[in-house]
Fold this sequence. Notes:
This is Excisionase family DNA binding protein. About 50% of the residues lie in helices and about 10% in strands. A three-stranded antiparallel beta sheet has the order 1-3-2. By secondary structure, it is of the alpha+beta class. The longest helix has 10 residues, at about 30-40.
Amino acid sequence: MDPKYLEALFAKYPERLTPQDLEEIFGLSRNTVYRWLQTGVIPAYQVEKTWLIARDQVKDWVWENRNTLKKGQTPEVHDEDQP
């Protein structure tokens, strides 16, 4: 994956993403997005019922997991990624 492609992919999105943005970006179902958020696969913070999802953190996460995502696998959660 070319870093320029990644920049272009996220360019139209605001600094704070919504779960719906993630559905669109990744082409995932709503259930998968929320499961990934709740299990810590995607970097995000939950404050009560609101998800705080930083675009640049997600972009960095995609870059770090590019081979896993390319194969269609769910990236593993590492201890340092857990809040």
